[in-house]
Design a protein that fits this description.
The structure holds two protein chains of two kinds. By secondary structure, chain A is mainly alpha-helical. Helices cover 67% and strands 3% of the residues of chain A. Chain A has one domain (32-371). Chain A has a three-stranded antiparallel beta sheet with strand order 1-2-3. In chain A, a hairpin with a 4-residue loop joins β2 and β3. Chain B is α+β, with helices and mostly antiparallel strands. Helix content of chain B is 40%, strand content 17%. Chain B is built from 23 helices and 19 strands. Chain B is elongated and about 155 Å long. Chain B starts with a helix and ends with a helix. The chains are: A mainly alpha, B alpha+beta. Chains A and B meet through α9, α12, α14 and α15 of A and α2 and α3 of B.
Chain lengths: 378, 605
């Protein structure tokens, strides 16, 4: 390959944008949108925590850690990142296996590795490593993807997704699989294969119901279909979340005034169900604003993918954009009662977890892809 | 490297860009779906969810009104509300009810009755409603529970008011008592007044004037969190307290009347003949209303209701007894008014009476007879023969008509629940109730207040007051403001005054005459009493009943009766005394009446 590192001319340097972009490798529009969203998140969380500032501070600390990782990854040009993909993927698999052997259990599931100083979820690494791996593998041959490579890609996806699903962490497994499948989709897999895969999934659903799901997961699906069948048990979350959303109306009850949130009717109101707090206090207008913000971030990420200058970057950027979307959509869908409850946080707003760090790391990669273009022409 | 150069990078880029476009479109659609869904919840379903959110956090807590006080005629408090601490449990807040009850049992010793009552109440209450376990905690129990509060989630120790009757058993049948409302009363009752833990009057004045005493519930709108913990009171509608009531009853006279009855079973009704205001209304044996009002447990209540002497039975208004000779002055008056007898004319009483063509002989209570008796002496000596003849001349139809005018066989309309109507038999009554024609012999028995005739003590007192008033009927009542309430019977203003005078004189002769049946009580009085003794045969003991000899003897004793008013010149008290199995009216009932009359007239002169 001919990396044109030295042949950067003056025109290209001018075209590459502002100081921020040239020196810090930061994409200003994306950074601005993310900062806005995180800011809204902090405001909503403060209310969701019942006006307590302590947890909000620790949330800010995590955002800062994510910011540092984002800036760090933004410095790594895609051509340095691409060769790391197989290693990251292999390492991720090893760590996932280690979770089974030596993982810390929390809430009935083994997800954590205790590294002494902090807990670490290998599934978080996989959220980035898998799309990188698939994008790397697919970019080594001409697109559109061939049938054979599609099989290889699906195997690459199935392995970590299954391991995470068995932890069990259905939400993350879904997300990791979506990241990989998104890349395969962008690589131009044939519509016929997509239809066939859809048919296989539809056919496998009953089998999954019987053999592949834990009891609590089945409960969640049943409850989703009819929350009122167990209004004080499994359906409670869904019902209370919908009461919170519906009672928000168009203009909302006002910041810090959400009765459902402040009187603790919404469970997990600062984590998975924070969207209900947002909808209750800021109403339909607030929801539209936030959804628009998410859409803008995704649009910017898609634009970065479109403008990327090689297939690895294109596929990876697009895959990350799709992952971010799935994240957002599944969370909002479940809180609004469109999807069954799967444990996924609302990206960049929900409190806690390593997810926020991983998400920002992903945006670091996107920024790197955008800020390093033109210097990486074929 | 050469392979790299052969790749059609433009077409590859087109592939990815195409897919990016498709993905963007799908994502836009799905985001639109989210917004549409949220919009549906927040706009179309807003009202529904807004009210559910409101119901979620707002709990209505009823506030019991303060029950009205009951005072006697002198303003002495007969029923009041005292602070007490109760133990209540909110089931939904208790993590494990069985464990909780066991732990409470260790601390304050629960009875089985308390547990039963609690479990029953729990079934009909909703899980967030507090259910009482014990209404009156001892001070030690309050202290123990307060110290151990953290161990008992869902348990509340709350101050509240308990009905208290300062005079205890005295006057219990008149005043009545309150008890926890039952399911039936709750269903029928006014929802603005009662909730499942309310108390309601169960007998006496407490029950009759329930609506006025109870007041209206207030309500507090309380904001609660998801655990049901009250956070703040949003607003409060205060309860409307019940009305205080003043009675005509004199609790001191009541105490004297009950003491005068001693250990006898029986009843006394004393009233002011001018107004019908009841001065004393006693029924023995009685009960302690405080035990009932404080939520006496089931077993103790069952023991009271199953007691053979029926302490909960209000004999004064529900006990029906043959009035016996009490009816004599009424009949003599009626006979004179109808011209059947001349008050001065005498008949000869030889102790026996026969009807033509009837083999049966009716005997006087005095086997040898009373000799020559006129109106006055027939009452004074209680000559049966005089009344056998009078009744025979009347015939049952006119006899019935006259006695009904005096209130026999009618309600008095007293302001107490459960008054029973006596019986003044007639042809029609017998046909309807026994399906038999009337026999002439039965008229003879009716003439001395026996046979089918039954009267309640309150009716006897009320009819006696009518004589004291010379034909003006009164409606007996306990509520002081009910003095003007109309009687249930019409005034008797067609009888000339002279006949009333003779009737009163004949009753005076009973107490003060040399041959009066109650002359023993007439001595040493500085006023005169008009009275009439009665002795009613105990009837209706079933052949198949089993009892030991002593019991049998006792239960065959006659009921003793005495009806009177005093002072004769201007009557201020009219009363009826009934002593079950007391023997004769003159020896048992009359002295009791004298005590009551004496007590009343000496304090109100």
């Amino acid at each position: 390959m001919n990396w044109a590192r030295d042949g950067v001319n003056e025109a290209a340097r001018r075209a590459s944008g502002s100081l921020l972009q040239r020196v810090l490798r930061v994409d200003a529009p994306l950074f601005g949108l993310l900062a806005l969203l995180a800011g809204i998140g902090v405001i909503v969380l403060y209310s969701a925590f019942g006006n307590r500032i302590d947890p909000v501070q620790s949330h800010l600390l995590r955002l800062t850690a994510g910011l540092v990782l984002m800036l760090g990854l933004a410095q790594v040009p895609p051509w340095r990142l691409a060769p790391l993909a197989p290693w990251a993927y292999a390492g991720g698999l090893v760590l996932l296996a280690a979770v089974f052997i030596a993982g810390e259990s929390g809430g009935g599931a083994r997800r954590w590795l205790d590294l002494g100083v902090f807990g670490f979820q290998p599934s978080e690494l996989m959220k980035l490593a898998l799309p990188m791996m698939v994008a790397w593998m697919l970019s080594r041959a001409p697109l559109p993807i061939t049938f054979g490579r599609a099989i290889v890609a699906l195997s690459l996806i199935a392995a970590p997704a299954a391991m995470i699903g068995l932890q069990p962490d259905l939400g993350t497994a879904l997300l990791v699989a979506a990241a990989g499948l998104g890349v395969v989709f962008l690589a131009g897999i044939g519509w016929r294969i997509i239809l066939a895969l859809g048919a296989v999934v539809a056919a496998a659903t009953p089998l999954l119901w019987v053999f592949g799901m834990q009891d609590y997961q089945r409960q969640r699906v049943l409850t989703f279909l009819d929350p009122e069948r167990d209004p004080l048990g499994a359906g409670y979350n869904i019902i209370q979340a919908q009461i919170a959303i519906g009672s928000g109306g168009i203009f909302g009850k006002g910041w810090l005034n959400g009765t459902q949130a402040h009187l603790e009717f919404i469970p997990e109101r600062h984590t998975d169900f924070v969207f209900a707090v947002l909808a209750e206090e800021f109403g339909l207008l607030g929801v539209i604003a936030v959804v628009t913000l998410y859409a803008a971030i995704i649009a910017r990420a898609l634009w970065i993918a479109r403008e990327a200058q090689d297939n690895f970057s294109r596929l990876l950027a697009g895959g990350l954009a799709l992952t971010f979307f799935v994240y957002t959509f599944v969370n909002m869908g479940m809180v609004a009662g469109l999807l069954p409850v799967v444990g996924l946080p609302l990206p960049l707003i929900s409190y806690g977890g390593s997810s926020i760090v991983t998400l920002l790391a992903g945006f670091g990669i996107l920024m790197s892809i955008h800020s390093h273009r033109r210097m990486w022409s074929a | 490297m050469s392979l790299e150069l052969l790749r059609d990078r433009t077409s590859e880029r087109r592939v990815v860009r195409g897919r990016l476009g498709v993905a963007a479109l799908i994502m836009l659609l799905l985001f639109t779906a989210i917004v549409a869904r949220v919009g549906y919840l927040q706009v179309a379903q807003y009202d529904y969810f807004a009210s559910r959110s409101h119901d979620n956090r707002v709990r209505l807590a009823p506030i019991d009104p303060t029950r009205g006080l009951i005072r006697d005629r002198a303003g002495r408090i007969l029923a009041e509300n005292r602070p007490a601490f109760s133990l209540t449990i909110i089931p939904e807040q208790a993590p494990d009810m069985a464990v909780l009850l066991d732990e409470l049992d260790r601390l304050i010793d629960l009875t089985d009755g308390e547990r039963d009552a609690f479990m029953k109440a729990r079934q009909r209450a909703r899980s967030f409603q507090e259910i009482p376990l014990r209404l009156q905690l001892s001070e030690e129990a309050v202290a123990e529970l307060t110290v151990n509060r953290h161990r008992f989630r869902g348990v509340e120790v709350k101050p509240h008011l308990v009905r208290h009757y300062p005079y205890g058993k005295t006057g219990a049948h008149a005043i009545g008592y309150v008890g926890r409302i039952n399911q039936d009363e709750l269903r029928r009752g006014d929802r603005r007044r009662y909730r499942s833990s309310s108390f309601t009057g169960k007998s006496g004045v407490e029950a009759f004037y329930e609506e006025r005493l109870q007041g209206l519930l207030g309500v507090e709108r309380i904001e609660t969190n998801a655990l049901g913990r009250p956070l703040s009171v949003l607003d409060r509608e205060p309860p409307t307290p019940g009305e205080d009531l003043q009675l005509t009853l004199d609790i001191e006279l009541q105490r004297i009347a009950e003491a005068a009855l001693g250990d006898y079973r029986g009843a006394i009704v004393a009233l002011d003949p001018r107004t019908g205001g009841i001065l004393a209304l006693a029924s023995q044996p009685g009960f302690d209303p405080n035990a009932l009002a404080s939520g006496l447990d089931r077993e103790a209540f069952r023991a009271l209701s199953n007691d053979a002497t029926q302490p909960l039975f209000n004999r004064a208004i529900r006990g029906r007894y043959p009035p016996g000779s009490i009816v004599k002055p009424f009949l003599a008056l009626a006979g004179a008014a109808d011209g059947l007898i001349d008050p001065d004319e005498t008949i000869f009483c030889n102790g026996r009476f026969n009807l033509p063509n009837v083999s049966r002989t009716w005997r006087d209570w005095k086997p040898e007879g009373h000799g020559h008796v006129d109106f006055i002496q027939s009452v004074a000596q209680s000559c049966d023969i005089y009344y056998y003849e009078l009744a025979h001349e009347f015939g049952i139809d006119r006899l019935h008509e006259w006695m009904t005018r005096f209130g026999y066989g009618s309600d008095t309309g007293v302001d107490l629940p459960g008054e029973r109507t006596g019986i003044m038999p007639s042809r029609e009554w017998k046909r309807q109730n026994l399906g038999e024609p009337w026999y002439t012999g039965e008229t003879i028995n009716t003439g001395i207040g026996q046979g089918f005739t039954l009267a309640t003590p309150i009716q006897l007192a009320t009819s006696t007051a009518m004589i004291a008033n010379r034909g003006q009927p009164v409606r007996p009542h306990l509520l002081a403001t009910a003095d003007a309430a109309p009687a249930t019977i019409e005034p008797l203003d067609t009888i000339e005054n002279a006949l009333w005078d003779i009737t009163v004189e004949s009753m005076v002769e009973v107490v003060h005459g040399p041959r009066g049946t109650a002359r023993a009580i007439g001595e040493g009085l500085d006023y005169r009493i008009a009275g009439k003794t009665g002795t009613a045969q105990v009837i209706g003991i079933g052949q198949d009943e089993e009892y030991d000899e002593d019991e049998l003897d006792q239960r065959f004793h006659d009921h003793a009766l005495f009806a009177a008013f005093a002072p004769v010149a201007s009557p201020r008290i009219a009363l009826a005394v009934l002593v079950e199995n007391g023997g004769s009216g003159s020896t048992t009932a009359a002295p009791i009446a004298r005590e009551v009359i004496q007590a009343w007239l000496s304090t109100t002169r």
